[in-house]
Structure formats: structure tokens, C-alpha cells
Design a protein that fits this description.
CATH class of chain A: Alpha Beta
Shape of chain B: globular
CATH topology of the largest domain in chain B: Aconitase, domain 3
Strand content of chain A: 15-25%
Number of strands of chain A: 7
Strand order of the largest sheet of chain A: 4-3-2-1-5-6-7
CATH class of the largest domain in chain B: Alpha Beta
Oligomer: heterodimer
Radius of gyration of chain B: 22 Å
Largest interface: A-B, 51 and 65 residues
CATH architecture of chain A: Alpha-Beta Barrel
Largest sheet of chain B: 5 strands, parallel
Order of helices and strands of chain A: EHHEHEHEHEEEHHH
CATH architecture of the largest domain in chain B: 2-Layer Sandwich
Helix content of chain A: 25-40%
């Protein structure tokens, strides 16, 4: 997993709440057995008409956001299916940070395990960012170490994150390798279970 | 100190705990299917890792399997995904009920059926509807593929302890009300993210009166309420369901287990972080009209209007949903025509669901403008239903009777609803395009689906039932 700390980029405003993982990556693209190559299918049915031509008014089709690494959306982002293909698609498309007031639990975990930083800001703060991002190309600086988001107009937002997930994102840990260090505890637990039965 | 079942199971499974860290939890049962596992097995191979406890894993194929002409999967990518699971299970020694196995079925139907699902277990699967198994008083939750790989390698997961929430349903369910209506009503009343960061326990008189199958329907859709998991404390109904199942002990050993299971139930006076209550009287046969499962109402209601909401974001969400659903504000729900009926999915494709729907459809005909299919939840359900002659009832009415799988719930196989057409569906999600690009889904119970099939529009199933005469 690629470590993440500072990201500086224009934000992409997605003014929708309850964005579900079926929209992020539709089921017809879940048949691949690889982790890569999902970016071109991100928000597929919001991005493209049935004939494959782009839907002009959808925000990802606005060339101003082509190099954006920060996606900003409204509450309960990533609800629904546990498909990790959703964060794989987000990452493969080029986003490293998502900002929203709240996330579905499984989606949040899936982001962290793939080096995507999911930031929680207050409702009003998110709506302000979406508003600014819609009016002009609006640049943000993300600093995970300091837990801050700073807008190009100098507005600074602070966010909370579980210290364990923060460390994992900053270091780009392989969580399984980490857990192997607790092998003696796992073996002891299994032994206790065996004796109880 | 009085404890909830959630706290009891959690504490029993802590392998390692330290201040400022999530707990390392042991996982008792890991269910796998073809869609969310290939990248996890590939990760093991790339790192030279093995499956720590293949004996605690169980795999099946459900999401991607055809429900007819099983021998020939025409889509080469689907075929490859199914073959990959077969190969992975062979290589790593994981038990598998493959596509032609007599136990094959939807993973959340076969786990309980085989007795793999038991009270007090921690159960995970790379599938959000793993919450289904909570009906047994198990702590069961969906995980992503990275976590699947983690569980395969270590049989554990790092988990921060979620908050607890009691969802109490007081009173007795009314005439014609199914457990599907209960969960849809709860999500509609308290919101699509009511359970975020929580494990919910369903309690109350209405829950105690439900069969295990009905309880599974409710727990199944805990994820639609945003909950990490949803469960129900075990009782005699739970014990009797499990008695005699293949993976539970027999005789004395079973009685001992049963006593342990019953002791897991939430203690009198235990505290939850949050409690919500709904009364059974508030719940009538339900349908959804929007693009998430909280957008639903009783069948006698109308599609809401923007004026019914205070928040601008709710008004916007309504507008977006109705634009997708091609519906107008204020439309009576019972006037909405449907072209498809799907009875199936991990929510509502068990024997009891099929029996209930068949009672409604018996001797009637599917409306000429409707295509209706029944997809039993497992091979076991299918065999049992055929033994009772339910297949004949459905076929004679004009339904198709298919092989098992997830099918039209998410339309990963060829079973899908065409763009611009509506489906009354017993599944769990009505997201945009869920049943096919441009398709429109109305979530209902099996009996409501059966009634819609007859009339060609959403309708109140109570018109097809005889109200029992109250005893004096």
C-alpha cells in the first residue's frame, strides 16, 4: 500500500448524498479477478450514456477536474455493498482523498486498506467546499500528519481520524504482516478454544 | 454487570487488546463467494502465505451463476471467475459447494441451512448481507477483499468496537404484515444511516413471534440501515431451528451447546448506547418508491412531495430519485404499473417466503404484461419446495421456476430488468441500475410481489388474504 501524507490538488465537487457503491462501480464490472483497471468504470452510468458517449453535465466529465486527487461528496458516502472494487476504482481513477460528512462503515475500512484517506468534515464545511469547488477550480492542501485541510483561500479545517488508521496510512503498512507479529496470541487463543471444547 | 449479547460475543473473541488500538478479534466462520475472493487468494499467492484455518472457511458460488442452462456459462469473464474460485479452493483446501453441488445456494441461505451459522460465533464474508446470520445471535458482518485476505491469513480482524443500538418493535404484527415490511418501515422511519458505527439488536414482542427465516429477513437488511451488524438474541426458536442440522453437535453435546447459546441473550437491564422504538401498529405492507431502501411507504400512501421535507439535501435527493424512477410527486403507490416480478435473494428466497407467495398466487395467473420469476435461495430450498409442489403452483400461474443464485437482485448474471422497466422485487436494494442499467426497483415482501404479479401494478396484498376472525 502506497503511504499518504500530503496531497495538494483541485477538489472535485459531487453534490449528492447517500452515494452507494453500486453507483461508484456497477456490477457488470465486478467480474475481473484483478485489483487494477477499474478506474475507467468509476461512476460509469453517471458518466456515460447507454451508447457510451459522455454525459456532459456530470462533474467527472468536466476537464477542469481531470487531474483532481480529491473527491468531495455529501453524507453517507459509500453505502451499500461491501465491494472493495469501489475504492479500487476511486484509486485507479486518480483520487487519493475523499471528503464527506460521513461514510458507510465497510467502505471506510476498504478505503483505509487501500491507501485512500477518507476525511470526515462537518456538513456545513463540506457544503462550503462543494460550493467553492462548483464556482471555481478550488485547490486544497491535505496534511494527514497535522490532520488539516486548507483551502486556497486560507480556510483551514481540522479532522479526526483513528490513530491506528492514521499510522497505517502514513506508513503504508501491510496489515497482514503486522498481524503476523501477534501470532503467539492467536495460537494461544486457538489453544484455549480447543481445551474448552 | 448486565451485558448485551453484543458485548458478550465481542469479549469472548478478543485475541489481543491494547489502549488506543482496535481489538484483534478471532473469526469463527469465514464464508466466501466468487466475486470478492479472487484478489484475496491472489494476495496470498503473491506473498507466499497460506490459509490459516481452512476448516473454518466455507465457499460457494452464487453472485455470478446462471439460473438456467447451468452447464454452459456463456460469458467468458463469469466463467473465469467461477473457475478461479474452484481452483483457489482446491489449492488452499477450502471446502466448497460449487455450482453443481447439492448444497449450493446463496451464501447467506446455506450457512444457516447447514448449521454452520450458530449463536455466539463471529462470522464474516466479503458481502455486506452477512448481517443475515445475526438472526441466530451471531456477530456477523460484511468485509472487503483486503479483510478477506487478512482473515484467510490470520483468522482474525482488527476491529474498533462499534456502539450498540437497540431497535425495539413493540406489539404484534398486524394482518398481512411480513418481516420485510418491518425492516423497510424501520429504515424508512429512522433513515438509511441510522445504524452507522453501530451494531443493532432487534428486540421486542414482534421479534419474539417471528420464525428464524423471518428474523433473517430483518437482520439481512441491517446493512441497508447502515449498521455494522444486526442481531437477535437466541431463544427456543433459534435452538429448534438448529437441532439436527449437519454442522451442529448431536444428543447431549447439542443440549450443552443450546444452554450456552441461550445464556448469550442480552441480560435484563443491559444498557445500549442508543435505543429506538417502533410499534407494530405503525407497520403496514410496504413498498419503496425511490432509489435507496429508506425511500418507502405503506402501500396505501402516495409518493411524497418536496414540501414534505425540511432539509434542502432531502428535497434534492427526492428530486433525483423521482427523476430516475420516472415518478411524479403525489402519485398513489398502488397505481404504479410493473413489468417484472422477482421472488428471490438472500433477503426473501427461503422456503417460508416461497410458501407465503405461493398461497397468494395459487389458482391465479400472472398478469399478461408481467414477466415473473422465482429463484429459490438454495438447492436445498428448491428441492424442499418441489417436494411440496410449490414449483407447480408458480409454473401454473405463469411464473418461471429457476435454479438458485443471487440472480436479479444484482443482475451480475444474465437475469436483469431492461432499461425503463419496473420490477416488484423481494431483494434488498433499489439503487439506481441495481437490477440492470436504467431499471427501476420497488422493494416488497414475497406476498406483495405475488399480488403485484397478478395485478400488474403495486397493490395491497391484504385484498388477497382472509383476515382471521379475532377469537372472543
Amino acid at each position: 500500500m502506497k503511504p499518504i501524507n500530503k496531497i495538494s490538488s483541485v477538489l472535485t465537487p459531487l453534490e449528492r448524498k447517500n452515494v452507494d457503491t453500486d453507483q461508484i462501480i456497477s456490477k457488470e464490472f465486478l467480474k475481473r479477478i484483478e485489483r487494477t483497471g477499474f478506474g475507467k468504470y468509476l461512476f460509469y452510468h453517471w458518466r456515460f450514456h447507454a451508447d457510451g458517449t459522455p454525459i456532459e453535465e456530470f462533474v467527472l466529465n468536466d476537464p477542469r477536474f481531470n487531474d483532481s486527487e480529491i473527491l468531495v461528496a455529501q453524507e453517507n458516502f459509500g453505502c451499500g455493498s461491501s465491494r472493495e472494487h469501489a475504492p479500487w476504482a476511486i484509486l485507479d481513477y486518480g483520487f487519493r482523498v475523499v471528503i464527506a460528512p460521513s461514510y458507510a462503515d465497510i467502505f471506510y475500512n476498504n478505503c483505509v486498506k487501500n491507501g485512500i484517506l477518507p476525511i470526515r468534515l462537518k456538513d456545513q464545511e463540506v457544503n462550503d467546499l462543494i460550493d467553492k469547488g462548483q464556482r471555481q477550480e478550488f485547490k486544497l492542501e491535505i496534511n494527514l500528519e497535522d490532520q488539516t485541510v486548507t483551502g486556497q483561500d486560507g480556510t483551514r479545517y481540522e479532522f479526526d481520524i483513528d490513530p491506528y488508521w492514521k499510522e497505517m496510512l502514513l506508513k503504508g503498512w501491510d496489515e497482514i504482516a503486522l498481524t503476523f507479529q501477534y501470532d503467539s496470541y492467536i495460537a494461544a487463543y486457538e489453544e484455549k478454544q480447543r481445551q474448552a471444547n | 454487570m448486565a451485558k448485551t449479547i453484543i458485548e458478550k460475543i465481542w469479549e469472548q473473541h478478543i485475541v489481543f487488546e491494547e489502549q488506543g488500538k482496535p481489538d484483534l478479534l478471532y473469526i469463527d466462520l469465514h464464508l466466501l463467494h466468487e466475486v470478492t475472493s479472487p484478489q484475496a487468494f491472489e494476495g496470498l499467492r503473491l506473498n507466499g502465505r497460506k490459509v490459516r484455518r481452512p476448516d473454518l472457511c466455507f465457499a460457494t458460488m452464487d453472485h455470478n451463476v446462471p439460473t438456467r442452462n447451468r452447464e454452459t456459462i456463456t460469458d467468458p469473464i463469469s466463467r473465469k471467475q467461477i473457475k478461479t474460485l474452484q481452483d483457489n479452493c482446491d489449492e488452499f483446501g477450502v471446502p466448497l459447494a460449487g455450482i453443481n453441488h447439492p448444497d449450493q445456494g446463496i451464501v447467506h441461505v446455506i450457512g444457516p441451512e447447514l448449521g454452520l451459522t450458530q449463536p455466539g460465533k463471529t462470522i464474516v464474508c466479503g458481502d455486506s448481507h452477512t448481517s443475515t446470520h445475526g438472526a441466530f445471535g451471531a456477530l456477523a458482518f460484511g468485509i472487503g477483499t483486503s479483510e478477506v485476505e487478512h482473515v484467510l491469513s490470520t483468522q482474525t480482524l482488527w476491529q474498533s468496537k462499534p456502539k450498540t443500538m437497540e431497535v425495539r418493535i413493540d406489539g404484534k404484527l398486524g394482518f398481512g404484515v411480513s418481516s420485510k415490511d418491518v425492516i423497510l418501515a424501520i429504515i424508512s422511519k429512522f433513515g438509511i444511516d441510522m445504524g452507522t458505527g453501530h451494531i443493532m439488536e432487534y428486540t421486542g414482542e414482534a421479534i419474539r413471534g417471528l420464525s428464524m427465516e423471518e428474523r433473517m429477513t430483518i437482520c439481512n437488511m441491517s446493512i441497508e440501515a447502515g449498521a455494522r451488524a444486526g442481531l437477535i438474541s437466541p431463544d427456543e426458536t433459534t435452538v429448534e431451528y438448529l437441532r439436527g442440522r449437519r454442522h451442529v453437535p448431536e444428543g447431549e453435546a447439542f443440549e450443552k451447546e443450546a444452554a450456552r447459546w441461550l445464556a448469550l441473550a442480552t441480560d435484563e437491564g443491559a444498557q445500549y448506547d442508543t435505543s429506538v422504538t417502533i410499534h407494530a401498529d405503525e407497520i403496514s405492507p410496504f413498498v419503496t418508491w425511490g432509489t435507496n431502501p429508506s425511500m418507502g411507504s405503506g402501500i396505501a400512501e402516495r409518493v411524497p412531495s418536496a414540501a414534505d421535507y425540511d432539509k434542502q439535501s432531502d428535497k434534492d435527493a427526492l428530486k433525483q430519485a423521482l427523476a430516475y424512477m420516472h415518478l411524479e410527486e403525489g402519485t398513489p403507490l398502488s397505481s404504479i404499473d410493473i413489468q417484472h416480478v422477482f421472488i428471490g435473494s438472500c433477503t426473501n428466497a427461503r422456503l417460508g417466503d416461497l410458501r407465503a407467495a405461493s398461497e397468494i398466487i395459487k389458482g391465479k395467473k400472472v398478469h399478461p404484461s408481467v414477466t415473473a420469476i422465482v429463484v429459490p435461495g438454495s438447492e436445498t430450498v428448491k428441492r424442499a419446495a418441489e417436494q411440496e409442489g410449490l414449483d407447480r403452483v408458480f409454473l401454473e400461474a405463469g411464473f418461471e421456476w429457476r435454479e438458485t443464485g443471487c440472480s436479479m437482485c444484482l443482475a451480475m448474471n444474465e437475469d436483469s430488468v431492461p432499461a425503463g422497466e419496473r420490477c416488484a422485487s423481494t431483494s434488498n436494494r433499489n439503487f439506481e441500475g441495481r437490477q440492470g442499467a436504467g431499471s427501476m426497483t420497488h422493494l416488497v415482501s414475497p406476498v406483495m410481489a405475488a399480488a403485484a404479479a397478478i395485478e400488474g401494478h403495486l397493490t395491497d396484498v391484504r385484498n388477497y388474504m382472509e383476515e382471521p376472525v379475532p377469537s372472543a
